[in-house]
Amino acid sequence: MRILAYDPVSEPPGDVRCDGLGDLAARSDVITLHLPLNEQTRHLVDDVFLARVRPGAVLVNCGRGALIDTDAVWQALTDGRLSGVGLDVFDPEPPGRHPLYRHPDVVLTPHLMGLSRRATAATFTAAARGVLDVLSGREPGAVADPAWRSHRTKEFHP
């Protein structure tokens, strides 16, 4: 499989980068969404986007439910523009009734695609290791906000 990517905030490497969303839609057999919801991304996948999608493409949304216009996706699926849809997120959550959710070419998961037993165990182990590192005065391996260093106090000794 050839991987392609588009990100307007953090530019992907040149060998996978697409010029824009339309370019990504036109060149992809499988499109996966992994982005936050904001005013620019709400209903990012709409009629205009889906008109550019390769016939028979598969759409998977693992980001936020409102990234897709559910009615537009359902129409694209019933028209044959999409051959399948995977949804791990819904708008709203929990989802209401919609014909998309009953379509035989749709796979629904309850917002847990990343929660296999191994992934969950690894997450909890890494979190515990981070707590132990901080309590022992060591810098944790994963730091979400590097500014925390300026707020550390050396007075705490467990």
What's a concise summary of this model?
This protein is of the alpha/beta class. It is 27% helix and 11% strand.
Structural class comes to: alpha/beta
Order of helix and strand elements from N to C terminus: HEHEHEEH
Percent helix among the residues? Answer: 25-40%
Looking at the structure, what is the overall shape?
globular
Which consecutive residue ranges, at least 5 long each, have pLDDT under 50? Answer: none
Strand content: 5-15%
Whole-Å distance between the termini? 50 Å
Radius of gyration: 20 Å
Tally the beta strands.
Answer: 4
Mean pLDDT score: 88
Counting DSSP H or I runs of 4 or more residues, the number of helices is 4
Q: Spatial order of the strands in the main sheet?
A: 1-2-3-4
Largest sheet: 4 strands, parallel
Question: Any descriptors?
Answer:
four-stranded parallel sheet; 4 helices; alpha/beta; 11% strand; 158 residues; single chain
How is this structure best described in words?
The protein has four helices and four strands; from the N terminus they run αβαβαββα. It is globular and about 60 Å long. It is 27% helix and 11% strand. Helix 3 links the parallel strand 2 and strand 3. It has a four-stranded parallel beta sheet with strand order 1-2-3-4. The chain is an alpha/beta fold and 158 residues long.
